[in-house]
Write a structure and sequence with these properties.
single chain; alpha+beta; Ribosomal Protein L30, Chain: A
Amino acid sequence: MTSTATQRTWDVVVWNDPVTPMSVVVVVFRRIFGYSTGRCTQLMLRVHHEGRAVVWSGRRERAEEYCVRVQVAGLRCTVEVTA
């Protein structure tokens, strides 16, 4: 039997910081998520203008893996359960 917690969707959230150049954020998103340059640019701009952006949603284990990779790349990142 699968628990309710494993059926939830988890979001990988990247937070804005005043240090990392925007071009670096785009490269990190491309490398980690494999998104197109256009999609990465949209996400980077959302982070820049709104202070945060959900960059991926899915299973908890995968979200945590992505979050660690983003953090290792030097960006602020958290995992949140989707409401």
